[in-house]
TrEMBL record:
It comes from the Bacteria. It comes from Rubricella aquisinus. InterPro entries: AlgH-like. This is UPF0301 protein FHS89_000422. Belongs to the UPF0301 (AlgH) family. HAMAP family: UPF0301. One of its GO terms (cellular component) is cytosol. Pfam families: DUF179. PANTHER family: UNCHARACTERIZED PROTEIN YQGE, UPF0301 PROTEIN YQGE.
Length: 191
């Protein structure tokens, strides 16, 4: 019975916002759902870069003198909670201090300055996404939003999360589910 309950949780999946989502901060968002259990859920929006903010703008503040230009990247809005806190979602090939591996394989999460330094100097993971803030749900809140058809659930793959152009990620994630975004209605319903 315990495994059945655990299997119902969605950690390691993508939440893809439906047009009917009631919160404009999440319009056309794709969220990597890092954790989900009976206590609630936590995830990072992975398709909303912050205009004009890049890793190169941040590394000088954490004591890195030079950034490997090949490692520069956009900084994303991870969500509306704790917007000053940084999270590095990355490929599982990197293990830094306090790195947590995803339950379902190819992803890991590190929230330390050392990880940013490693990325900046080319010693970090092969693939990474830096986000400020996160999306959070209390107990039962995400389940309620799923019942209200605010989100679709898609499998998270490194290609989608790290290699897909962010402006196309919402449509691409929908396409993996066989959904054409032009056919989605802004009003939700239940049959």
């Amino acid at each position: 019975m315990e495994n059945e309950v655990k299997d119902a949780f969605l950690g390691g999946q993508l939440l893809v916002a439906m047009p009917s989502i009631g919160d404009g901060r999440f319009a056309q968002s794709v969220i990597f759902l890092w954790s989900h259990d009976a206590e609630g859920a936590m995830g990072l929006i992975v398709n909303k870069p912050i205009t004009g903010l890049r890793l190169s703008d941040i590394v000088s503040q954490v004591g890195v003198d030079a950034l490997d230009p090949a490692r520069d990247m956009d900084v994303h809005t991870g969500g509306p909670v704790d917007k000053q806190r940084g999270f590095l979602l990355h490929s599982a090939d990197y293990q830094g201090k306090d790195t947590q591996e995803a339950e379902h394989g190819a992803f890991a999460l590190t929230a330390t300055i050392d990880a940013l330094k490693d990325v900046a100097t080319g010693q970090g993971p092969a693939h990474a996404l830096l986000a400020l803030g996160y999306a959070g749900w209390g107990a039962g809140q995400l389940e309620q939003e799923l019942q209200e058809n605010a989100w679709l659930i898609a499998p998270a793959t490194p290609d989608l999360v790290f290699r897909t152009e962010k402006a196309q990620l919402w449509e691409t994630a929908l396409a993996t589910l066989g959904v054409d975004p032009r056919l989605l209605s802004a009003t939700g319903g239940q049959a």
